[in-house]
Design brief:
heterodimer; A: 3 helical TM bundles of succinate and fumarate reductases; elongated; B: mainly alpha; 3 helical TM bundles of succinate and fumarate reductases; about 80% helix
């Protein structure tokens, strides 16, 4: 039997069980990096508007400070800083991977999971800081 | 050679380097600004305005916004080429995102100019 024929006749899955298919941690790390990046592109608009108000006058600065008494504004700021933290730590992971480290399956998955933990801790710390 | 006319750099290698260089600048700026706010609590208007009135901080801020333009341009290009196969729609979206990042830079110049 030809090698190609053997390949065709060997056991293959007859259907893909979508309930059993899970994204690996590396794929989730990648998509979150993209999502957090796009979120921040919108967030910079808010931050520049706040920077402008806070620098024009003492009254403007006070109004920006009082803005953060609002629970919704606190939540938005927390969301922005969480996205920033994830993107920043994910970016550092990318730079380390550029040097040839963490490119194997096990080390790649391990560093992706470590990234989730670090980003989560940063998010909690920032949350405590804001509230 | 296939050229990527919609991206920022002239080649993939150029994009690769620019994305990382701009990322490092943005990381430094973010860490500095968060560190400054965290260390100078309670933050007053005098401290805040004093920081942005110095020339190095103005340059750093504009440098970060230029880095943001480059970083977002390449990053958005990477995301859009993966998820938006329709060339016309991708072109429109890329245009909107790049103009947004350019507007941020223009706004940033005006903001730090007056301080």
């Amino acid at each position: 039997m030809e090698l190609s024929e053997q390949n065709v006749k060997k056991q293959r899955p007859v259907h893909l069980d979508l309930h059993k298919i899970r994204f690996p941690a590396t794929a989730i790390a990648s998509i979150l990096h993209r999502i957090s990046g796009v979120i921040m592109l919108f967030a910079i608009g808010i931050l520049l508007w706040l920077l402008n108000s806070s620098l024009t006058s003492a009254e403007g600065f006070a109004s920006v400070q009082s803005l953060f008494d609002n629970l919704l504004m606190k939540f938005i700021l927390w969301g922005i800083l969480t996205a920033l933290g994830y993107h920043l730590f994910g970016g550092i992971r990318h730079l380390i991977m550029d040097t040839g480290r963490w490119e194997e399956l096990t080390s790649g998955i391990a560093s992706a999971k470590a990234l989730f933990v670090i980003a989560l801790v940063f998010s909690v710390v920032v949350g405590i800081w804001i509230w | 050679m296939v050229t990527n006319a919609a991206s920022f750099g002239r080649s993939g290698v150029h994009d690769f380097i620019l994305l990382r260089a701009s990322g490092v600048i943005l990381a430094c700026y973010s860490i500095f600004l968060i560190g400054f706010i965290a260390c100078s609590a309670p933050l007053t208007f005098e401290i805040w305005q004093g920081l942005f009135s110095t020339l190095p901080m103005k340059v750093f801020t504009l440098l970060a916004l230029i880095a943001l333009l480059i970083h977002a341009w390449i990053g958005v290009w990477q995301v859009l080429t993966d998820y938006v196969p329709n060339t016309a729609l991708r072109g429109v979206l890329q245009f909107i995102f790049v103009v947004t990042a350019l507007s941020y830079l223009a706004a940033g110049i005006v903001i730090v100019w007056g301080v």
